[in-house]
Design a protein that fits this description.
This protein is α+β, with helices and mostly antiparallel strands. It has a domain of about 100 residues: Double Stranded RNA Binding Domain (2-Layer Sandwich), CATH 3.30.160.20. About 35% of the residues lie in helices and about 15% in strands. The strands form 2 sheets. A 3-stranded antiparallel sheet has the order 3-4-5, covered by helices on one side. A two-stranded antiparallel sheet has the order 1-2.
């Protein structure tokens, strides 16, 4: 871990000392190197205890990323896409930025719109033609015979 480095997000600046990395052997690309070198990177970020997040940002992050956060409030990001530990480390940090950006973004409220008349006409026309097709298929058997 390099001390003093900062990872910057649009809304949030996270210091490197808030991130914890662990390394393990990866099942991804690397040939025989996979069995010898720990290239898989797991990044841990404590959302619940981060001093850089506002209370509102913390709440949004905990809600929206609930499936990735454990009971202690630690967010986990894994990367094993690349052959080197350095590239996977950078990819994990980039993924953390993406996740935090999406989590703290406010969703736009949905505006209700009316169904266009043309869409209603088209739907009803399709129903009528389907009904007519099914009526043609039925055999009119007289009960006299």
């Amino acid at each position: 871990m390099t001390s003093g480095m900062m990872t910057e997000n649009k809304n949030i600046t996270i210091e490197e000392n808030e991130l914890t990395f662990s390394f393990s052997c990866s099942s991804g690309p690397g040939g025989q190197n996979v069995n010898k070198v720990a290239t898989r990177v797991t990044l841990y970020f404590n959302v619940a205890a981060s001093p850089k997040l506002t209370e509102h940002q913390r709440r949004l992050t905990l809600e929206k990323l609930a499936t990735r956060i454990d009971k202690k409030g630690v967010l986990r990001v894994i990367s094993y896409r690349y052959r080197t530990q350095g590239q996977n480390r950078k990819a994990a940090v980039d993924r953390l930025h993406e996740l935090l950006n999406k989590a703290v973004q406010e969703a736009k409220p949905r505006r209700k719109t009316k169904i266009p008349r043309s869409a209603t006409r088209k739907r009803l026309k399709a129903k009528k033609s389907r009904s007519a097709l099914k009526k043609k298929r039925s055999v009119n058997v007289s009960r006299d015979e």
